[in-house]
Fold these 2 entries.
Entry 1:
Amino acid sequence: MLAVVPPPITVRVPSKVNLHLGVGDLRDDGYHDLSTVFQALSLTDDVTVAVAEDPGVEVHGEGADSVPATQDNLAWRAVRALAEHAGLDADDLKVRVVINKGIPVAGGMAGGSADAAAALVAAAALWRLDIGREELTAVAATIGSDVPFVLHGGTALGTGRGERLVPVLTRHTFHWVLAFDRGGLSTPAVYGELDRLRAEGDPPRLGAVEPLLEALASGDPRRLGGLLGNDLQAASVSLRPALRRTLRAGVEAGALAGIVSGSGPTTAFLCEDADAALRVAAELSGAGVCRTVRVAHGPVPGAKVVSDDTAPRPTTPPD
Ligand code: ATP
């Protein structure tokens, strides 16, 4: 008799940039209250989950060497969490997770969270789970605070630790240039540096988010450019002073505005349109201030199945 093995499922997942990242005071649980506006960008990772006799994780692409190919990988943790949630035997996971990274590792663009979100969608499809988006979002939030956003994509206002999301109305597509730094930055280290800087004398805090929400609804990149802001930027620049030069170089190359993305050290430059983004990218890559430059646009949708091989494949029976 032929055994039927479900086909592998590949999911494409976006990265994120925070257009506004307001960081409140340190809470008793060690987290900070955030008020943030995320936008999902077309710089993506692909994650494939397949039934396999040799379970485990493989990582390829951008920064693969610094991503754990172990049970600590966020994509693996997501698959495990979903199995437990669905009542499957999590200790007997016969799946292989293959990650193709385009999102820089430890770059402030939620790369690990993106892989977790993609793995949730892929595993739910592979196991044909009857699970709605809301339930999947609840599992996502147990993995990390950015996971629900990259699951949903678009543009959203996040509160709490960033995991409580409300969609934000935007008009038109915005065009970005991303400058990858030569190394990564640890998110906890950047928050720690912000606490230290605040204890010393408070770098100014971001104002209200409403003007930025209005700019997004207008679709005018010039208006949006003037309102981008990130409370973590002072801390990232304090830990990586060369970012000051990168931020200046992007604006000198013609970007409307530049910010550190999340906890950094990736810098994100908003451009007038797609052609301007290509010009800024070319000039910035010649300026020698960063490792690599990419163009991207947003908002884009969240984690989505892209494999079209949906028919179960018969396998040769064992002898
Ligand atoms: P954020 O923007 O959410 O703060 P980040 O983009 O700065 O995150 P990540 O790329 O998510 O950072 O990586 C943070 C750390 O998580 C890495 O140093 C890496 O060791 C670990 N990690 C675990 N799984 C993954 C994964 N699938 N992809 C990337 N990093 C992972």
Note: The chain has ten helices and 14 strands.
Entry 2:
Amino acid sequence: MDFDEIYEKIKTAATLEIKYQYINFDGRKMNFSKFMISILKEVLNKINRVEKPAINELIVLFESYHLDSVGSRKYTIEKTLEVFARLRKLIKPKNQRDEKEKTEFKEEIEDIDVSFVKGVGPVVAKLFNKIGIFKVKDLIEYYPKKYIEYSFQNKIKDLKLGEQVTIFGNIYKVTHFTTRSKLTVLTVTIKDSTGFLPINFFIKTTNRKLIEHYKKEYPLNSFVMVIGKVKFDDYNSRITLDKAQIQVIGTNTDVELSKNTIVPVYSLCEGLNPKTLTNAINNAISKFQDKIYDPIPAPILNKLKYTGKKSAISLIHNPNSMEEVQMARSRLVFEEFFSMQLNLAILRNEVSKSDSIKLEIKKGGLADKFINGLPFKLTSAQNRALAEIFKDLNSTTPMQRLLQGDVGSGKTVVACAMLLCAIENGYQGAIMAPTEILASQHFKNFSAWLTPLGISVGLFTGKNGAKLKKELCANLKNGQIHVAVGTHALIQEGIEFNNLGAIVIDEQHRFGVKQRNALLNKGKMPQMLNMTATPIPRTLALTLPGDLEVSVIDELPANRKPIITTLGSNLERKKAYELIKREIFFKHQAYIVYPLIEESETLSAKAATIEAQKLQEGEFAQYRIGLLHGKMTSDEKEKVMEDFKNQKFDILVSTTVVEVGVDNPNATVIVIENAERFGLSQLHQLRGRVGRSELQSYCALITQSASAEVRNKLNIMTKTNNGFIISQKDLELRGPGEFLGTRQSGLPDFKIGDIVEDAEILELARKEAIEFISNNNIEDYPLLKKEAESYNLFRG
Ligand code: ADP
Ligand code: MG
């Protein structure tokens, strides 16, 4: 008898006794008081020590019950019911206890080690770790990378000679023998519900180990898809497949016999059998199903008509149709994007709660003076961006703006005007660039623009000598330097500002969040503008932190002509060289770029050096050629750039160091060798070295590749000069990781979502996340908060 049953019995007996008006009624075996004493003694064994005195007291009362007055009997019964009502609350109800026994684990699935799943021993656990599965949750959320549908399968007993067929079945046995001519014949026998089919593979080896290795590729019982053409095997006088391919797709022996027509395929690692993985996943789902909670609030699920998490998880791993896959998938993608967007929204809320420096914008002030003194008029896109920036500066809310402008669109003047606002208000400004060439180019521009206005500029790079560094640091600290231009050197320890008020990060995607924050921390909440010349496609921008608002300079200065781009091999190079000569005749200049051929700066520097020499001795013997590569010191690089700008060379031969931001408006031709080795965005950047003035410019892409894929990719360059179109294509072709090129970029790894293909869900998730955060307190949704916080990892 458990406690609940005892309680029921006591209640029933007491109710009867009350009904009979306390007569100590006779039951079948004994009277009421004796029955109560016996049952109370049983209770003593089931409760803990502190409760025992109360029960003993009741026993004493019932021992004198048969002698008591009606009043005392009434008291005893009331007291008993009271004690039991209290005890009952202390002891957990039966069903709750049972549930706890079922799951056994107090922790949640994100804390329970995967080795607690049935079928996951130490060896398998190690393999799981290799593919990023550590906890039960990782396993359950290890989603299939694709599915194989086998509704169009052929059955072994119906095979017809000469037919191209697809068979699904299980590996029944794998045998081998070695012929006298040292050829090993491996026979894999496939079984489906209708028969057996042997398939032979011929391997030129007698090495036992190697043969065993081949055999391991066909684990017994594993479920496979076999493709091939039916033929008659004369040697064995039976039917087999010619040029057969066997793909192991999983899982358990009965898959083929079940009604399933879809089999999930997972990414595996060497040594990991698909069957082991799917079994573990299914074991984990059934064992821990009570711990699969849904982080998405029910109203959102209802509104968007998404299924619950538990059913989505079970469908994604065991679907009956592709519609089910679609349904489960879009819900899980939404969950991922929604959590990530919540994280961004929380982050933004935090940032905008803190106070930043507010800068007054004066009409006719420094910024206006600077702009009016330029030899050109700002484009309307530049003006619009500046107005947006000024509005941000004129508020205590920290600026969270990304300035995107295609190469040559004139971001530098916008940045300079922004920094002038800080100076006007008595603060210092800083601009950080990813390379020394770029930093020193900014330094030259800023010095030329700002010295006439009485503003001093300092250049901070890694190559500053100790003495210069000391002097610069002192002047930065005492406020004599108004604008600091530099590389990463700016965020070194020991660099202190007097009162930093505004920051520009040039080519922001080349910096990590940490580095940007390090510069922010050099002041007391300065305003910060991020800039990029690699237009970031909208979906990608939506997944990056900190850049809520985007200003776009989508217009080139009016005098620009679209760059004419051509694509070809040797003949194209010949034409391009003729073009270079013609342009040099008109006193213009050219770039010839050689990519990193080997994955080493040294080797590619060597390659560029040799090419430069060849050109100087051959094709361009009468011309002046300069050389730029990554192995030169920064002084050397800078001198070459300076000389090129001052037209001391006609042609600059370069590795890709010339890619970022280098500005020589007089250059009109760029020849890019081995163009197939570059991503589209990088090509666009390189091409942007020309076309930086009113002069007609040209870009020749040279490739020896005959691949249609390569040609199609490169052809995009010949069709458009629009950086946004190009970067979108680049993102589609290479994927987000490659596109951003750095893990520091703050882009999370998604388990199932694809920001290119699932762009629509991303937009939806973003909208829902923003709405959710503005109407709810995330603290009320601990599960959701936890999911959102898992994305903190990517915030550097
Ligand atoms: P990017 O956006 O690629 O950094 P820059 O700021 O280096 O471009 O500008 C490219 C060139 O165009 C520079 O030589 C710059 O002086 C010039 N420039 C900038 N704005 C204008 C304009 N509105 N009209 C004409 N030339 C401009
Ligand atoms: Mg630039």
Note: The two ends are 59 Å apart (CA to CA).
